[in-house]
Amino acid sequence: MRSPRRFRRTALAALSVGVLCAVAGCGSGGDLTAKGTTGTAEAKDVLLQPLAAPGPGPFTESTAGAAPSPSPSDAPDGKAPPVTRTVHPVSGAAPGLYGGTRSVAACDVERQIRFLTGDKGKARAFAGAADIEAVQIPGYLKSLTPVTLRVDTQVTNHGYSAGTATAFEAVLQGGTAVLADSRGLPRVRCACGNPLKEPVVVGGEVAHRGERWPGYDPARIVAVQPSAQPLTSLVIVDDDDSSWIERTAGDSGGRDRSPADPPPFEPSDDLLFPPPTGPSEPVPPDATPPGPAPSDPAAPETPDDFGDTPPQEPWESGMPPGDPWGYEEGAPEPVPEPTQVFPAEPDEPAEYGVPELFAG
């Protein structure tokens, strides 16, 4: 049985590439075309999609389980002013990335199969966007795992129009029902049957279209990246009692169980959004300790005299500054912007860091 520390190190290693990618501004752009998929995913123009809204060009009716309807925010419909946001890459293997209800599927996979295979045009367009053949749709969908997103997630979505699948960038609201593959990537949005791919993420200002939901924060968006190895199961959070569930890949919940080796943190801990860390607060001028009083010139110094305590070296001052989950590498100057994500400390393997994945 793995030790909790080794588990944490292994888990954080899965995230380290994504974290470093966020710092470096990784992302790709350009046309996303494959097997008949047309259109360009505009990374500078992102559609906000509430969890139950079908969105433009749905492939099918909704096959998602019952979910509360989101309340619109005060933001006007249409094109919102450009905003600077932060998208945090995270491994699809991260425990707690997805949620669900024990022994209950977030999507009706069999119904999804019937919808898609019943329309040859949509089946061809869906297969093209999913990089499979139309005859493979039933087996492909059955290989996916029905879960729900626990945080707002950017994806490349695909709408159906004039016999083709057209790509566009979208942020799916936390709580959205999806089908995830064996690398932990969301592949189908169950509210509309649309195929999904990894997002095109660029830095700078982004125009967000559509309806903003309460709690939406452009600095708290994730982009799921494929796990290093295929997954035999996903460790998700039970939405009913906030406990851990291990759901077998490709299973609709019938084989759900509690993990034999659960993560060494609580489901409520935030693993995805590390708080920014900065240098220690400077000592106020009036708090500077006075220098030693001048010695009596007639009194020679002896080994028994005690002067002021010499300044401590960094390693003598006790615990390191900041949160032990932080990704600080020393004390860089100038102080990074508060929305940056920091790379793992260089002296030991990266671990899942980041407290509070949906506190409360």
Topology of this structure?
Layout: H1 4-24, E1 45-49, E2 83-84, E3 87-91, E4 98-100, H2 109-117, H3 120-130, H4 137-142, E5 145-149, E6 153-161, E7 164-172, E8 177-180, E9 186-189, E10 194-195, E11 205-210, E12 221-225, E13 233-238, E14 244-248
Parallel strand pairs: 1-7, 1-11, 3-12, 4-13
Antiparallel strand pairs: 2-11, 4-5, 5-8, 6-7, 8-9, 9-10, 13-14
What do these coordinates show?
This protein has 360 residues and is an alpha/beta fold. 13% of the residues lie in helices and 19% in strands. It is built from four helices and 14 strands. It has helices at 4-24, 109-117, 120-130, 137-142; strands spanning 45-49, 83-84, 87-91, 98-100, 145-149, 153-161, 164-172, 177-180, 186-189, 194-195, 205-210, 221-225, 233-238, 244-248. The strands form three sheets. Strands 10-9-8-5-4-13-14 form a seven-stranded mixed beta sheet. It has a five-stranded mixed beta sheet with strand order 2-11-1-7-6. A two-stranded parallel ribbon has the order 3-12. A hairpin with a 2-residue loop joins strand 6 (153-161) and strand 7 (164-172). The radius of gyration is 25 Å and the shape is globular. The two termini are 30 Å apart.
Structure characteristics:
single chain, alpha/beta, 19% strand, globular
Summarize the structure in short:
This protein is about 15% helix and about 20% strand. With about 350 residues, the chain is α/β, with parallel strands linked by helices.
Major sheet summary line = 7 strands, mixed
Mean pLDDT rating: 73
Low-pLDDT stretches: 1-40, 68-78, 278-284, 299-360
What Rg, in angstroms, do the CA atoms define?
Answer: 25 Å
Form type: globular
Side-by-side strand order of the widest sheet: 10-9-8-5-4-13-14
Helix content: 10-25%
End-to-end separation: 30 Å
Order of helices and strands: HEEEEHHHEEEEEEEEEE
Helix vs. strand class = alpha/beta
| Tally of alpha and pi helices | 4
Total number of beta strands: 14
Query: Beta-strand level of the residues, as a percent range?
Result: 15-25%
